[in-house]
Write a structure and sequence with these properties.
The chain has 280 residues and is mainly beta. The protein is built from 2 helices and 24 strands. Helices cover 5% and strands 44% of the residues.
Length: 280
């Protein structure tokens, strides 16, 4: 079996206040997303979100079922989104092939039974960053190229948060049940993401940081606005953000990150903003 799996229980704000560095990292950090010729899944009880990575090198890697789902196949009651952060790849969905280049996305709707991941060049393997959520309805499988994304530019160089937001798998681009995914690129000279910070108690989120230059890091901030904590992160690592938590970061260089969300609405603007000078 080429699938590894672990599950994380949800933590309350009161629990998180008592955590030391090791406990905080154990609860929220996903230190390794990609392993050659395997799929590594991390399940969180926040909205039953699954985060993983598929990296086919020696040959194709198939999406396998996991016991947690108690289903006949992985997507029997789930939807799946992905963004390729590696070399050119192909995703085969019930026999239909979708080519994904760097930073292109694919949505796969509920009910698809066979998903197989391929790399076009083993020397430059594809890296499919995967997010999956429960689904109640079947929507069409669809590739979203970067040219099809809804693009928003925010921030300024003066406040170190000039960034481009690429909304890829969101309801303004295509229909999903609850999964939303996009990618934010920090411009050279800027390091802050999601600042001013916010929470959204109706949705949880997972961040995946990549294009972090060698020797550089990102400090990810989480916790209640008046009781923040931080987790130092390296290239191609992910972090779970509870609905009650802020999710923001600052790097020692500019970088890119993928955000994925799930919850009880698809309203991208549903945010409870936190004033910068009131964070603690």
């Amino acid at each position: 079996m080429s699938t590894a799996f672990e599950s994380r229980y949800a933590s309350s704000p009161n629990e998180v206040k008592q955590m030391d560095t090791a406990a905080l990292r154990h609860a929220f950090l996903i230190p390794q997303v990609f392993t050659a010729d395997h799929i590594h899944w991390v399940h969180t009880h926040y909205d039953r979100y699954l985060t993983g990575g598929a990296m086919p090198v020696k040959g194709p890697v198939a999406l396998e079922n996991i016991d947690l789902l108690k289903a006949d196949y992985f997507l029997e009651r789930r939807e799946l989104g992905m963004i390729n952060v590696g070399g050119d790849g192909i995703v085969e969905v019930d026999g239909e092939k979708f080519e994904l280049s760097f930073k292109e996305a694919l949505y796969i709707g509920k009910g698809k039974q066979q998903v197989i991941f391929h790399s076009k060049d083993a020397q430059h393997p594809a890296k499919f960053y995967l997010n999956s959520t429960p689904a109640h309805h079947t929507y069409p499988t669809r590739k979203v190229a970067r040219s099809e994304a809804e693009v928003v530019t925010l921030g300024t160089l003066e406040t170190s948060n000039h960034r481009t937001i690429n909304k890829l798998l969101v309801n303004s681009v295509l229909e999903t049940c609850q999964l939303q995914m996009g990618m934010t690129e920090l411009q050279p000279g800027s390091v802050w993401n999601t600042m001013p910070a916010h929470t959204h108690d109706r949705r949880m989120e997972v961040y995946f940081y990549f294009e972090v230059p060698e020797g550089q890091s990102v400090c990810h901030f989480m916790g209640e606005p008046q009781e923040t904590r931080h987790i130092w992160m390296q290239n191609e690592q992910a972090v779970i953000s509870p609905p009650w938590s802020v999710h923001s970061g600052a790097g020692t260089s500019n970088y890119t990150f993928i955000w994925g969300m799930a919850g009880e609405n698809l309203d991208y603007g549903d945010m409870d903003h936190c004033k910068i000078n009131e964070l603690r």
